[in-house]
């Protein structure tokens, strides 16, 4: 995998940064486009569903993986 890429965004009124591999960012960007959401809205929805013990970066990776697996079943 490639080096991590950091993105900054606001969640619940707080600025935060998340570092992920470009491949995960690409899937997340595609998810936002397909759902007609802003990137921030997609991340906020994933953030709202995660358990407190799961880091945001991990939740984003899992969401991207689940979406890619769903798409691969077509």
Task: Note the topology.
Layout: E1 5-11, E2 14-20, H1 22-34, H2 39-49, H3 56-72
Antiparallel strand pairs: 1-2
Helix pairs in contact: 1-2, 1-3
Describe it for me?
The chain has 74 residues and is an alpha+beta fold. The protein has 3 helices and 2 strands. It has helices at residues 22-34, 39-49, 56-72; strands at residues 5-11, 14-20. A two-stranded antiparallel sheet has the order 1-2. A hairpin with a 2-residue loop joins β1 (5-11) and β2. The termini are far apart. The mean pLDDT is 92. InterPro entries: RHH_dom, RHH_sf. It holds the Pfam family RHH_4. This is Ribbon-helix-helix domain-containing protein. Residues 5-66 form the Ribbon-helix-helix domain.
Keywords:
single chain, 74 residues, alpha+beta, two-stranded antiparallel ribbon, 3 helices, 2 strands, globular, RHH_dom, RHH_sf, Ribbon-helix-helix domain-containing protein
């Amino acid at each position: 995998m490639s080096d991590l890429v950091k993105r900054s965004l606001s969640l619940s009124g707080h600025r935060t940064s998340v570092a992920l591999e470009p491949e995960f960012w690409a899937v997340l960007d595609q998810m936002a486009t397909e759902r007609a959401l802003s990137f921030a809205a997609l991340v906020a929805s994933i953030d709202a569903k995660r358990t407190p013990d799961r880091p945001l970066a991990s939740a984003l990776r899992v969401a991207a993986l689940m979406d890619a697996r769903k798409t691969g079943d077509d």
